[in-house]
Structure formats: C-alpha cells, structure tokens
Amino acid sequence: MSHPSTSQPLSHETDDWKKSITLPAKDTRPQTEDVTATKGNEFEDYFLKRELLMGIFEAGFERPSPIQEEAIPIALTGRDVLARAKNGTGKTAAFVIPTLEKINVKKPKVQALLLVPTRELALQTSQVCKNLGKHLDVQVMVTTGGTTLKDDIMRLSEPVHVIVGTPGRLLDLASKGVADFSEATTFVMDEADKLLSPEFTPIIEQLISFFPKDRQIMLFSATFPLVVKHFKEKFLIKPYEINLMDELTLRGVTQYYAYVEEKQKVHCLNTLFSKLQINQSIIFCNSTNRVELLAKKITELGYSCFYSHAKMLQSHRNRVFHDFRNGVCRNLVCSDLLTRGIDIQAVNVVINFDFPKNAETYLHRIGRSGRFGHLGLAINLITYEDRFNLYKIERELGTEIQPIPPIIDKRLYVAPSSLEDAQVQQPDVEAAAATARQQRQQAGLPHEEYGRQQGHWRQNGRNNPNGGGGRRVSDGGGGGGGGGGGGGGVNGNGGRRAPNPMSTARPKPKPKPF
C-alpha cells in the first residue's frame, strides 16, 4: 500500500498512526475483476481525515474497488452522482466514505440523509457508517417503520449528524418538524431503482422539499429503469454518471438450473444440501406463506433453518438478520425482502426455490452470493411453468443459465482455504450462538426465544448446521439424503421418488417455450 505524498499533513506520521491500527485477519479468498480491475488508487490518495482512514482500514478495506475509485473523488467535490454498479462491489462504502468525510462534528445538525428501501438495509448501512466513522465522533441514527416514533423523537433531541432510514418514517419525522433537514447538504439514495418505484416516488419528492436548494443528491443502484431517468432530469444538476455495468451478472457467481416438478422441489433441495459444500445459503420463495412452509419442511429434513419475511414483527426480523449474519444458522429462507443490498459475505450459495418473475428480481437475488468479488453459486429450481421466465431473464441479462451438472466443481463457489479433503470441519454453532447473544445484548435486540413467529424453525436436538439429510421424515415416506422419498413439495405431497438434480444421468434439455 502506498503512503501519502509529502504534501499531505499525515506523511511524517504515517507509520506511527498505521501501527496503532488493529487490522482484521486478511481475507485470502480469490476475487474477480468486478472488484480487482482498479486504477491502482489508494484511500490515502483522496486526502481523507486520518480518523476516517483508520476506520476504513480497521474495517478490512485495503484499496478502493472500481465503484469506490469512480465515486469517492467526485462525491467529495459536492457534485450530484448517478452511479450504476453490480451488487456486492462496494457501493455502500462508495457513498458512506465521502459522506462521513464532509461531516462537521462540531455542528450539532443533521448534515446527511442516507435513504434505503428496507429496514434490514437501513440497519446494515447504519452499522457501516458507525464502523467506518468510529474514530470521528459522528453521531449516526437509524430510523425505520415498525419502531416507535417516541424513540426517534427522543434521539433527535440530541445531536445527530447522519440519519439512515426508510422513506415513510423519514417523511413523517420531517413533516412533524422533528427531523430538521434545512442544513443537510447530502441526500443519498441506495437501491435507487426500488426507491423510485411508484409506491415511494411521491414520498421521495416530498422529502427533497425539506432540503436546501444547494444539496448534493447521489443515486446508487445495480439497475436504472426509466423512472430514474425522469427523476434525474427533475432533481439532479449536471450529475456525474458512472456506469460499471459492462455485464449485469457478477462474474464470480456460477448459475445453474434444475428442471423439476413442483412436488419434487423439496427432495431436490434436500439433495443439494447433502451434496454441496455450503458455508451459508439463502433460499428464496415467491410468497410469505411458502417461506414459512418451506422453513418447516427443511427443519423436518434435519437442517437448521431461519426464515424472514415482511409480515413478521420488526424485532423478530432484526434478530433473524442479526443471528444469521453472525453465523448462528447456516440456512435462511426468505421472500424478496432480503434481495436489496444485504451484504453477508459468508453466503456462498443462493437457491431460487421459486423462480422469480422478472430479471431485476433475479439479478438482486443471485447477488446475495459472490459478494465483493468472491465466488458464489446460484441454483434455480425450474418447473414447466417457469420456462418462459427462464428464457426472458436470460435474454434480458445477456447471460446463460446452464443445466446443473452431475458434479459441481467446488472451486467454483468455495474458497481454496475451505475446500474439503476428506471431511469438513464443522463450525462451533454453540459458540456462534453465545457470541450472537452477547452482541444482541449490546445492540439492545430482544432476548425472547425463537418460536414459529420469530422466523426460526428448530426441532429438539436436531439442528444440523451442515446439512447431511438422510433421516426419515414423519409425514412423507423415505429418507432425505439422496433426493429420494419424503415430503414432496412445500405442500407435503409425498410418495414417489424425485429425480436427483445432480445425478449422473444427462440433464434434461432446457424446455423450449411454445
């Protein structure tokens, strides 16, 4: 890493302040060109505050990713930015770093608003702000729907420099005069395409009216539909446009499909669990009802499983997200609630139990694996009814989803240091759970035990964080391990042997739409 030039005030003390930093363990996993194809810049090149640099390095950042190289220097000038980059390439830090750099901590006013579409993403983004700015004394507040307005009012009675939140709650606070944005010069929209959907656009436009005319607006997303163009023309002033989307899908994510009948999906999922080397996985369903039913089925097969969807209480969603991020459970079943921006780098497998209806949703789902240039695997369970969507999504994304082979090369989705030889070393789940409990206490999250409504399916003494399958299921028939009998689909139809999606038989050719 290069040192600052002699013109920088930090240069004569560079070695001293760097020696005082406690760096995390170096991530030795290989990375793709999505994050390594840089110009060779260093974070010191942007003349950032020393305290901010300390937070950046202590968070594990070594050099700027391509989107950070493009966005940070422009954002520091105060110019409007319209940035398009792939999921999982460092977009959050690309706007958090310049936002924190411009904060005047001696001024007890709200100076920046970071707007996100979901509560989970708000919590994650606020934590990034706190981690990167921990040496700056920047006061960060997160506010979302599902929490009491009274808590927000009390928090805003104290100094707050950066607010991270969702549109509805922020408009409520601004309209009531609780949140004062009259001196907030930074307005950031992450996952801007979602924020500018019909449900949010009127709220966003009202929110902007509370900001000064000389505010800076920055939009970040992986996809920019036509509504973004209209918003840009109406509110942005000569924006600097960044487009790093020479291709839409992440280079590190390998995509496969398995052609199955609806009632065979659970068997195929069981086979995948037993065959794949999963670090952590996210399994997507198209409805909240199917999320809960599938989570129950997965647990009956002998695998530990959390679930999360939009109809759950916010405190329960927070705990599921927190514990899954901290490695308490290996598998998470969810709706599209977690497709937006959620960054859990331990996730190396994404399974579309239900194939999505459009290319945008598909792109965001598979982007939960292969984060920050690492390797990942996306497997899609395709029924006869999905054949049109499969071809449409391939065409729109300019990608090809291959039929699943008999054996998937683990080098495609497993870090070299984690490749199995004879046996995978099992993680200490109890230790992870104890750590998560301690962190929840520090974060003030609820301590009630998980039950059905909390999004956590568990059977007494039968958690198996690595999968394994093979035990007999009470409501369907045979054992699970090799994709054989048992409860067939989410609805529990059993009785016939399902095809093994990874058998040695030649994969069924991709069904052609009529």
Structural description of this entry:
This protein is an alpha/beta fold and about 525 residues long. The chain has two domains: about 25-245, Rossmann fold; about 255-420 and about 425-455, 3-Layer(aba) Sandwich (Rossmann fold), CATH 3.40.50. Helices cover about 30% and strands about 15% of the residues. It has helices spanning about 15-20, 35, 50-60, 65-75, 90-100, 120-130, 150-155, 165-175, 190-195, 200-210, 225-235, 265-275, 290-300, 315-325, 360-365, 385-395, 430-445, and strands at about 80-85, 110-115, 140-145, 160-165, 185-190, 215-220, 240-245, 255-260, 280-285, 305-310, 330-335, 345-350, 375-380, 400-405, 455. The strands form two sheets. An eight-stranded mixed sheet has the order 14-8-13-12-9-11-10-15, with helices on both faces. A seven-stranded parallel sheet has the order 3-4-2-5-6-1-7, sandwiched between helices. Helix 4 (about 65-75) packs parallel to helix 5 (about 90-100), helix 5 crosses helix 6 and helix 8 runs parallel beside helix 10. The radius of gyration is 23 Å and the shape is globular. The N and C termini lie far apart (about 55 Å).
Please count the helical segments.
Answer: 17
User: Which band does the percent of strand residues land in?
Assistant: 5-15%
Low-confidence stretches: 1-13, 421-429, 445-499, 503-509
Give the proportion of residues in helices.
25-40%
**CATH superfamily annotation of the largest domain:** P-loop containing nucleotide triphosphate hydrolases
Strand order of the largest sheet: 14-8-13-12-9-11-10-15
Overall average pLDDT: 77
In the CATH scheme, the class of the largest domain would be Alpha Beta
CATH topology of the largest domain: Rossmann fold
Overall spatial form: globular
Structural class: alpha/beta
GO biological process, one term: regulation of translation
Pfam family, one: Helicase_C
Enzyme class: hydrolase
Family: Belongs to the DEAD box helicase family. DDX6/DHH1 subfamily.
